[in-house]
Prior knowledge:
Elements: H1 10-26, H2 30-60, H3 63-75, E1 82-85, E2 87-92, E3 98-99, E4 105-106, E5 109-113, H4 135-141, H5 143-148, H6 155-166, H7 176-189, H8 198-205, E6 208-211, E7 221-223, H9 225-264, H10 269-276, H11 287-294, H12 302-310, H13 319-329
Parallel strand pairs: 2-7
Antiparallel strand pairs: 1-6, 2-5, 3-4
Amino acid sequence: xxxxxxxxxxxxxxxxxxxxxxxxxxxxxxxxxxxxxxxxxxxxxxxxxxxxxxxxxxxxxxxxxxxxxxxxxxxxxxxxxxxxxxxxxxxxxxxxxxxxxxxxxxxxxxxxxxxxxxxxxxxxxxxxxxxxxxxxxxxxxxxxxxxxxxxxxxxxxxxxxxxxxxxxxxxxxxxxxxxxxxxxxxxxxxxxxxxxxxxxxxxxxxxxxxxxxxxxxxxxxxxxxxxxxxxxxxxxxxxxxxxxxxxxxxxxxxxxxxxxxxxxxxxxxxxxxxxxxxxxxxxxxxxxxxxxxxxxxxxxxxxxxxxxxxxxxxxxxxxxxxxxxxxxxxxxxxxx
Length: 336
């Protein structure tokens, strides 16, 4: 039987859809290029912004003062005035006041987190704007590493798409698969599976000495309007990474969903092969899928089948074989 006549079933279609998803992710598309470029841009923008941040923080908390207090802390364990942080609350001192959400005039200020999972809207609190507000940035930055160990860094994007499709505001909160993905992602980012704690590594890279206790708001750090603009560029760069990641995966999921509909109308593997070879697709189906799927569909020859069956157990001896065995047992010469 020709291998191309293998019929498709639900299991085979599922394996092919998964492989087609990998193919779509490997394509050099405009959306993918924009995502990769945004990550490169974000790294340089964050580093540049942090250079300014360091200047502003150390202007407010001189290193010599930090050293003095550290010395006192070592001498007196009742003193706790110096620490390190990667989150800062900056307040502009050389620009007009702005209107807040209540239409009151307030000083221009914002919370800036340089942590991997920090807030990306400038609001106070690491997870302001949703518990996965900052984690989407972490998923995007370490996407390839996470995929390599079987994780799903696209889970929040896929959940949003499914939520829109089902028009249900409860789908994200009641999805056990999404919860498991998030838990597994979090475990890995925290150093699970014997890896690096990416959260801590990122935090250490962007940590500065701060004098004072309490939350960020209790130690507002003065800065210029120009410096403030550089901090906002950091937030914009992180948002762009999340946005381009979302746009790319949206196109991937859309293509895969369309393929799911197409493959439903296919009954034979040869049809999938013809589709894969199309000049616009150019999809090389994973050879392991081919080997796995053809194995049980090949028809062996009748001779091979009969032999494999009849070789089981001991065959009944013929009359000639019985006589020969009797002669040997009774010492009768075969020549006589």
